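**Entry details**
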Amino acid sequence: MLERYDAYDTFNKEYVQSLQLEEKLYDILIDKDSSQEQLAEHLDKLNNSYVKIIEANEQFNQFTNEYNDLKKNFYKEAELNVKYEDE
């Protein structure tokens, strides 16, 4: 369960960093003195941040699915008649 929280924290951190990089991208685009090389380097950083977001999101989703499966098994073993929307 703690792994899921850690995965969410990682996802959130990567997402915030990506937003900061996007904001910096707009600053570069507005700056008439910025070079093509500077723009390309920043776009590489931004694209790498998107990859990290996707990886962190996939990890979080995996832990969430595991948690939901464990929760369903617990309810079944406890003989709680829980109904799910997906069933």
Observations:
- Residues 21 and 46 are 6 Å apart (CA to CA).
